[in-house]
Amino acid sequence: MRSSNNASLMLQVFALCLLLSLSEQHLYAVAFASPTKCVSRCRYQSLHLAPQQLGEFKPINLVGDEEKQIDRSNRRVWLYDFVSNTQNDDKIPYEEAWDLQKRLMEQQLSRIGKRPKDPPLYNQFIPVNADKDDGIDSNSLVGCDSIIMLQHEPVYTLGTASDTSFIRDYDDSGNSESRIPIVRIERGGEVTYHGPGQLTVYPILDLRGYNQDIHWYMRALEEATLLALEKAGVSGATREEDVTGVWVSDKKIAACGVKLKRWITMHGLAINVDLRSLENFDGIVPCGLEGREVTCVNDAIDEKQYTLQEFTIHMKAALEEIFGITLVSTTT
Predict the structure, then answer these.
(1) Which of 57, 269, 299, 321 is buried deepest, with most CB atoms within 10 A?
(2) Per the residue annotation, which of 42, 144, 256, 287 is the catalytic one?
């Protein structure tokens, strides 16, 4: 009888352990689902874990254990400005800009070396005396942090795991009735649109000089966008819980999608500036968010209608402030 009781007790203990294990897995999955969908069942896990999932923005001088002074004059970053530096409203083909991003990333990876324990070959920021002929090593000007600003020819882009069902009139053979090119790239996120009237920003940055936290980086991109919109006179711009990007009056005005490799960033953000930027969003479900609309800067303000070049001025200033840098124009 005692043997039978022991066996029964062991089975009960095993069943209880199995139940606890399954419960933990369920709570883990629920906690990282959309917190707004599980508040009634797991309020504690939602409130505790959601901030970790999406991250929070801290000013660059407050990143780390203690406040530090940021000297922007020593943190110089190349700016490839294909908006302000042109007079013909030039539009850059997507593959051309993509190739430039990949080339700049490879230069960054060469700079930091193949082994993590090895120090970088040279600093990620442009030397202060780079504009002088002081016998500076020209290699130290290659592989520094860079930011690209441009507007694209019309294109739909898909992230690595994007669902093609969010492209309207798309079939399984890869065909679409749309005449707009479709490109699958290595960023995160769902399908989005790039085209004329939209400012696209591609930072190629080494996050070792900022904050080695992808969630902080995403929030920093949003923060720079919010600041640029504020400078332009757009009121009510905000983040939304559980989703990336920036919103105005419940409509998306800016999207973010990035890729990191060994803490080097590529891809970035896109802000709809003038009405042309909205023309082809009806061909997709932007970012996979059913029923959500998009808007642009000029649709959100009455006082002024911005050109892309004018809004770019605000975006440059915002990036310098949020990332604690000084932008230095280059064309090579």
Answers:
(1) 269
(2) 287
